[in-house]
Amino acid sequence: MQTQLIAALQRIVGDNNVLVGDATADYVTDWRQRTHGQALCVVRPGSTQQVAEVVQACAQAQVAIVPQGGNTGLVEGSIPQATGEQVVLSLRRMAAVRAIDPHNMTITVEAGVVLQNLQKTVDEAGFLFPLSLGAEGSCTIGGNLATNAGGTQVVRYGNARDLCLGLEVVTADGQVWEGLHGLRKDNTGYDLRNLFIGSEGTLGIITAATLRMFPQPAAQLTAWTAVASLEAANALLALAHTQLGAALTGFEVMNQQALQLVDKHYPHLRVPMWQQTPFCVLLEASDSESESHARAAFERLLEAAMEQELVVDAIIAENLKQAHDLWHIRESITLAQAAEGVNVKHDVSLPVSRIPAFVAQTDAALQALVPGIRLVNFGHLGDGNLHYNTQAPEGSDAAAFVAQFEDAVGEVVYQAVHQHGGSISAEHGIGALKRDKLPHYKSPVALELMQRIKQALDPQQLLNPHRVLRSRASGGEG
Q1: pTM of the entire structure?
Q2: Neighbours of 429 (CB within 10 A)
């Protein structure tokens, strides 16, 4: 049966676009190099019609499909299991820009378009596409939508869901839903678009999307500040909202341990102020008028923050290179952590007002659990998203730390997140990594509704099975 399916897939997409054996290596290991799967094959369709035919062939053979974009996910949601029985459906070949509508301020692209290429295309058309994240050079728009990606500008523009006006989706039985309209208002029934966004390929396969474009700002300024506490960072955020309004596009917080790792592994980046205070904040503002107008507003904000003793010290980037360098420091935290050794990552969200209490409580609990544990906390404070990561104590074996304490550390973090009214996944998704955690922190009613939707849209349980929800056929919990 497997040989027959592979032959059928070859007829659909061509022999060169069905990979087997060693040729699948780049598609079966997760980005963090922690988990290795095995695929029956990797199929690379070049059109929506080919995706539909591939799904139909797999459905007939009752073989599961794992949709995959750039394979940059962090929750093991886009790689096959180790059984070698699943088909990886890679959408990387589907990278066409189908249409740009400048009057409607929309662009329609296929799912395999790399985010950075999309940003460049929109920029060349005289507009802005604001989704921005560390993996933008390799992640694809289909994966961004499947996980409802966030990034650094959510505080102003929202998540990937907020940037999407329409989708084209191949359903579990190989039908094509053509919903690529560019409408901002459409009250004709259930919101199917938002159902598929964030579903991690478990309900349908996104093949194209119509996305919002925005006017390019006349000026964009970046500031770096040192703050004495998270309470001060929260107060600075509130002041920035009041004084800058919609011009505030980024508000990132980084703790001293995170910046110390960057300074250690990338000293040429010359991290400013990191030794002065426990936290630093990176702010970005976009202005529709002029650079002088933006700079005056930024200076007024920082002067007020100094007067209120919210900020210990601050600098405003004088040019684009300085702004880029400051953002490069922020984006290098993850790489510095990797250079320091394997670590335990958590992507959580909380009400902004609860973040200081959450961090204080969780820091203390983890120091009691593992004396000397290094807490590497940073993230998008503007939208309540914190990357609460932990590193082995200085001089200890990193791999042994992860093996011994990963589950216990996770339990401490997630219990505190739940206690403070937060979510165990802010922008990375659930995938396989957090699937078994979800029932402990999600309403049973919500889980039951999710199971009913999954059953209705994918009754054979063939689309990315064992991701997000445990399959009922396995006897597992919701």
Answers
A1: 0.92
A2: 26
